[in-house]
């Protein structure tokens, strides 16, 4: 199904949030070709729920896949098999905190996890389509670059507050700009305001208390965001699959203009852009009623793919 770009004004009243049924979470380690172990989580729909496909979740800067459990439960209720993983240097995966071992490492790791997930889905159902991919913030940058560079071939893509089209002058954190000047491997606090994650203060409090979250960033990681995120914008016109871009209108962590540029450069017939005026960076963790609007937008768009 083709979709046209839409106005960022969301008119429908959000439906009541679904009653989420707790799902069993399975965890394991996956090895990359160069021997780095990535922490992987899987969630499956409950027995009896109609199967609709599979979705790979790619997390943002300083966090980890476990923060997406509520979103995974929402997706499994819709019938999607869900996988998420911790980037190298984040969460429970290998690697120095906040550093990338080579410029292409994050994209290479995504390609490895995606291919493994795709193979697992097809092993269960030979006729299954490729998984979708949903990337948030840094994860949105990684997904956008892997997609525009032809490294992954998903059924469709969702980008939430993607850190694409950023410049050192446009990024909100002074430390993030300064990180470009650091010696390789040295990290500093990223300086991004945790109270800009969501209008719900419990979100920032939970992140501060989470032992698997950190605020470190190296020159190599900052350079990836600035360089590869801009390349994703320049190459956006070659994206072959449907894309939903979710933009936080009052983002305090990244410059939302980069996501708007990326969305405008995508093929028009298969792109949907939804902007949420006044919303902060973590759209899936925003205070109500914004979160309900975001989930309704995602639900409706996913239904349109069928």
TrEMBL record:
Any Pfam family hit: Hydrolase_4
Signal peptide range in chain numbering: none
GO MF annotation list: hydrolase activity
Protein name: Alpha/beta hydrolase
Annotated keywords: Hydrolase
Ribosomal protein among keywords: no
Residue ranges constituting the Serine aminopeptidase S33 domain according to the UniProt record: 51-287
Keyword Iron: no
InterPro entries in the record: AB_hydrolase_1, AB_hydrolase_fold, Hydrolase_4, MAG_DAG_Lipase
């Amino acid at each position: 199904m083709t979709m046209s770009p839409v106005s960022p004004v969301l008119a429908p009243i959000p439906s009541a949030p679904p009653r989420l049924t707790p799902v069993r979470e399975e965890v394991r380690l996956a090895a990359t070709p160069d021997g780095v172990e990535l922490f992987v989580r899987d969630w499956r729909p409950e027995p009896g729920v109609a199967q609709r496909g599979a979705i790979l979740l790619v997390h943002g800067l300083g966090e980890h896949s476990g923060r997406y459990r509520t979103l995974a439960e929402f997706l499994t209720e819709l019938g999607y098999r869900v996988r998420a993983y911790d980037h190298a240097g984040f969460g429970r995966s290998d690697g120095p905190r906040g550093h990338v071992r080579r410029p292409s490492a994050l994209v290479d790791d995504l390609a490895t996890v995606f291919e493994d997930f795709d193979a697992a889905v097809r092993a269960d159902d030979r006729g299954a389509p490729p998984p979708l991919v949903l990337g948030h913030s840094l994860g949105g940058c990684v997904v956008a670059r892997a997609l525009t560079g032809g490294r992954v071939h998903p059924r469709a893509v969702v980008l939430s507050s993607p850190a694409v089209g950023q410049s050192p002058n446009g990024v909100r954190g002074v430390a993030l700009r300064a990180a470009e000047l650091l010696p390789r491997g040295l990290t500093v606090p990223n300086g991004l305001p945790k109270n800009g994650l969501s209008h719900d203060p419990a979100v920032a409090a939970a992140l501060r208390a989470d032992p698997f979250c950190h605020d470190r960033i190296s020159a190599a990681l900052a350079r990836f965001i600035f360089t590869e995120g801009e390349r994703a914008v320049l190459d956006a016109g070659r994206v072959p699959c449907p894309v939903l871009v979710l933009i936080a209108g009052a983002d305090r962590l990244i410059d939302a203009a980069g996501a708007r540029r990326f969305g405008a450069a995508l093929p028009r017939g298969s792109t949907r852009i939804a902007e949420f005026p006044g919303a902060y960076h973590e759209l899936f963790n925003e205070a109500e009623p914004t979160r309900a609007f975001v989930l309704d937008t995602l639900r409706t768009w996913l239904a349109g793919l069928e």
